[in-house]
Design a protein that fits this description.
The chain is mainly alpha-helical. It has 2 domains: 104 residues, no CATH class; 52 residues, no CATH class. The strands form 2 sheets. It has a two-stranded antiparallel ribbon with strand order 1-4. A two-stranded antiparallel sheet has the order 2-3. A hairpin with a 4-residue loop joins strand 2 and strand 3. Helix 2 crosses helix 3 and helix 4 runs antiparallel to helix 5. The longest helix has 35 residues.
């Protein structure tokens, strides 16, 4: 059973529960789902076969959704109570993943996602940089051409000097 059929049949049950008669339900569903009257009348005729299945699917989806919402509340609480940045980032990442899964369950987002792009972040050791800058604090003046030559920092030019690389996923 595809998602459109499932949604149409759930809507049929909801409208019937709201007290609409068969003709009103058929008119409403043919407009909403762009289908023929005979399709909706066929849903009424074969109801005894699909209704138990639809109710099982709906009940299980609601259970899964409730579990995701409970996990989201716990992750949100952990985010507010976290003492470190790493714990906050982990909680935010979990909350993001739960939102993605809930969107997939609701049909709002396709389950296929493009590969995430990685960003490299380079952290420089402040102690190494302090030593570099303190040893070259006075600018040099070249007497032959009288041009100003700023000091060159090892922190910016030498690959790997005080580097602590990390990789963070992005959402593009």
């Amino acid at each position: 059973m595809n998602a459109n059929t499932l949604e149409r049949r759930l809507e049929l049950l909801k409208d019937e529960g709201n007290g609409l008669n068969k003709r009103e339900i058929v008119q409403d569903l043919t407009q909403k789902f762009n289908c023929s009257d005979s399709t909706v009348y066929n849903d009424f005729a074969t109801r005894s076969t699909w209704q138990p299945l639809v109710q099982e699917i709906a009940a299980s989806l609601f259970k899964i959704q409730n579990r995701h919402e409970q996990l989201y509340r716990k992750a949100s609480f952990m985010y507010t109570q976290a003492k470190s940045d790493r714990a906050r980032i982990a909680a935010l990442n979990l909350m993001r993943q739960i939102n993605i899964e809930l969107a997939e369950l609701s049909g709002a987002k396709p389950s296929e996602q493009a590969a995430t792009e990685e960003i490299s972040i380079r952290w420089e050791d402040p102690e190494v940089c302090k030593k570099q800058y303190s040893s070259t604090t006075s600018p040099t003046l070249d007497n032959s051409s009288s041009t100003f030559a700023p000091p060159v920092s090892e922190c910016l030019t030498v690959e790997g000097a005080g580097v602590k690389p990390s990789v963070a996923p992005t959402n593009s």
